[in-house]
Amino acid sequence: MSPGQIAALIAAGAFVLLVLLLAIPLVKLGRALDEATIAIRKAHENSTPLFVEANTTLNHVNTQLERVDGITANARAVTGNVSALTSLFTATLGGPLVKAAALSYGVSKALRARRAKKGGDADAGRRSRRARGGRK
Questions:
Q1: Which of 33-37, 101-105, 123-127 has the lowest mean pLDDT?
Q2: Which residue intervals are annotated with compositional bias (Basic residues) in the record (predicted)?
Q3: In sequence order, which residues have a C-beta less than 8 Å from that of residue 115 and are 6 or more positions away?
Q4: Looking at the 3D structure of the chain, how many domains does it have?
């Protein structure tokens, strides 16, 4: 055996050792890819019931939203009716009630002032003049 043949045997042995060392991570990578494939397949199989449930939930939500739309439309109608009723009440009874209250206040004030003059109550007369803005 010549030194060149020995060197070739050493090189061949090193090459075999290198191939074996590289084969181990490649085998492990293959197993990991197989597991990933299985996991993806299971996720795909289990996604169908999930999508069915999500679709059912969305249908229920849409039903509830339609009900809420009806409720808000009714509330809008009620507020419009209340607004119209309030403006009608203010127009028909508000003005006359204010005038009647002002008249009754004026009459009671005049009667108090008249009683104060009749009764000779000097203090009542002064109080009446002070309220009107007269002299003390």
A1: 123-127
A2: 127-136
A3: 121, 124
A4: 1
